[in-house]
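quick q for whoever's on today - can somebody do inverse folding on this one?? i tried earlier but teh output was garbage lol. tokens:
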């Protein structure tokens, strides 16, 4: 017999009874994993609480300055808390960092100089970094335009770092090696914290002066350690992903060694000014509160990704990661096989949203991407991918990327609603 919630989902939202059964069965199979994730969530919650208390956060830190933003106590406290949480010497946490790509660009261009070499050791970076590096687009101020060379080391077939190839790629010009923790639009598992620890040890043993940088987008608070606890010199990410907890309205962060953060701050503003200026526009309250809530929000999104993997795997779809795999980001990839199925999945996610659920997403030529991209995200914060969302480049083999959910229940509903849309369009069998 259906319970009250299942009856509501069937009556109010039209979720097929068979889909309710499939989801419930998958959820039961995930119980043991969910318990382990709850322990990680608790650890990170108390770690953040400790950082707040050590830095004596008070109501005064929620106000803001005007003009240049000199001596802004809220901004200074926010960045001290951030450094405490991520175990770094310094941090930049700013609403003026517009997205993850901007944060990564600041970190790379702030540190590298003409004649230096950058190596990506996890294959191709996320699409929006291609123009930053200069592998696509010309004359826009890319690394290539400024005489910074680039090498790319592909992952092995099993998705792990190819250390033999990386060793060959390292040269006397190599200044920075970057690891992208999350999958991006690739069919692979995210790089785990133990793997990051192994990678930093390898790089430092090769040359202690090479800077280890991690693109930490989608990876925060999935483990009891962060990349900077494992030897990474600098990390960067977006506040409208994991660490903003769904409350940050915009922004990004860079954290790491103080000498590197100083260089990045000079790129962010100007030499001689660095991080001493810059308004927070009254956002320190939402940034701090979002950080405080982030472990539970990430926990719900991660459970939703595992449930998505289990449901679609049980139905015969190829998924990555698999339902029993160790996770290091909140993204779940499902190979759907056709543009129609990708569109249907995204329409289901959009229909599950609290905001703009009546909108029909369509693929379009999104800036920074080489293919048309469809994005479903009926979010309180535009583009916030810690909220329930799904997106996909419209290219073979037609893989959709599911992530987010401010609560597990909403992420779970997204899985059901996406499957319902596929079923209604006769693109999926139950």
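ok took a stab at it. sequence:
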């Amino acid at each position: 017999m259906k319970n009250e919630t299942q009856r509501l989902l069937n009556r109010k939202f039209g979720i097929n009874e068979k889909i309710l059964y499939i989801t419930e069965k998958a959820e039961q199979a995930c119980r043991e994993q969910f318990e382990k994730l709850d322990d990680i969530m608790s650890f990170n919650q108390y770690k953040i609480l400790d950082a707040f208390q050590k830095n004596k956060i008070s109501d005064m830190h929620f106000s803001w300055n005007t003009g240049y933003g000199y001596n802004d106590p809220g901004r200074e406290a926010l960045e001290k808390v951030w450094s405490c949480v991520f175990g770094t010497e310094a941090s930049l946490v700013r609403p003026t960092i517009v997205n993850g790509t901007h944060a990564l660009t600041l970190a790379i261009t702030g540190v590298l100089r003409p004649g230096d070499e950058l190596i990506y050791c996890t294959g191709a970076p996320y699409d929006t970094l291609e123009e930053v590096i200069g592998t696509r687009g010309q004359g826009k101020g890319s690394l290539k335009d400024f005489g910074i060379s680039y090498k790319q080391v592909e992952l092995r077939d099993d998705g792990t770092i190819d250390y033999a190839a990386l060793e060959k790629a390292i040269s006397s010009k190599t200044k920075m090696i970057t690891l992208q923790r999350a999958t991006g639009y690739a069919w692979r598992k995210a790089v785990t914290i133990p793997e990051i620890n192994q990678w930093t040890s390898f790089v430092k043993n090769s040359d202690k002066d090479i800077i280890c940088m991690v693109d930490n987008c989608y990876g925060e608070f999935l483990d009891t350690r962060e990349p900077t606890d494992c030897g990474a010199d600098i990390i960067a990410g977006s506040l409208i992903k994991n660490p903003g907890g769904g409350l940050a309205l915009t922004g990004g962060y860079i954290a790491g060694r103080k000498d590197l953060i100083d260089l990045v701050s000079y790129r962010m503003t100007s030499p001689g000014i660095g991080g001493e200026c810059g308004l927070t526009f009254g956002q320190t309250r939402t940034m701090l509160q979002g950080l405080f809530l982030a472990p539970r929000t990430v926990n719900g999104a991660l459970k939703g990704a595992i449930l998505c993997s289990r449901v679609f795997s049980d139905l015969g779809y190829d998924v990555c990661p698999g339902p029993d795999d160790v996770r290091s980001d909140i993204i779940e990839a499902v190979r759907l096989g056709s543009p129609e199925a990708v569109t249907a999945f995204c329409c289901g996610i959009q229909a599950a949203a609290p905001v703009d659920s009546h909108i029909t997403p369509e693929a379009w030529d999104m800036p920074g991407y080489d293919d048309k991209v469809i994005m479903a995200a009926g979010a309180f914060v535009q583009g916030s991918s810690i909220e329930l969302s799904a997106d996909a480049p419209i290219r073979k083999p037609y893989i959709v990327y599911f992530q987010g959910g401010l609560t597990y229940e909403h992420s779970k509903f997204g899985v059901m609603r996406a499957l319902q849309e596929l079923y209604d369009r006769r693109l999926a069998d139950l």
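fwiw The chain has a mean pLDDT of 96. also The CA atoms of residues 128 and 367 lie 8 Å apart. so keep that in mind when u check it
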